[in-house]
Design goal:
With 110 residues, the protein is of the alpha+beta class. The protein is built from three helices and four strands, in the order H-H-E-E-H-E-E. A two-stranded antiparallel ribbon has the order 1-2. The chain has a two-stranded antiparallel ribbon with strand order 3-4. The radius of gyration is 31 Å and the shape is rod-shaped. The termini are far apart.
Length: 110
């Protein structure tokens, strides 16, 4: 287009912007969607979503690298509070672990 019409790069960019604005006004009532990462403009929200997914994909995160703690320390003082168990009745019974040399007691519901 630059060589055929003797247009500068700025002229071409302005033309592209005008085309997007016209498409947006006919499809979305005049709203142009702009990419927050690179400034690319499109006429539809779906077009922006497609652009972001193709041009700015998120890096894959290994679930093992996700921490439940606010900082990098892995100690119990930063652990979230224990959940309360619902439905525990007053009919609890203590059971001693059947494994040899283990005397740990566990509570069970009857």
């Amino acid at each position: 287009m630059e060589s055929g019409h003797k247009a500068t790069k700025d002229d071409v960019e302005m033309f592209k912007k005008k085309v997007v604005e016209e498409r947006a006004s006919s499809k979305q009532g005049g709203e142009v969607h702009v990419c927050g990462a690179c400034g690319y403009t499109v006429a539809t929200k779906k077009g922006l979503e497609t652009h972001v997914n193709r041009k700015h994909p998120k890096e894959h995160v290994n679930p093992a690298d996700i921490s439940l703690f606010l900082d990098d320390r892995n100690d119990s003082e930063n652990a979230p509070p224990a959940k309360k168990v619902r439905g525990m009745s007053s009919n609890e019974e203590s059971v001693v672990c059947p494994v040899k040399d283990c005397s740990q007691e566990c509570k069970t519901r009857l």
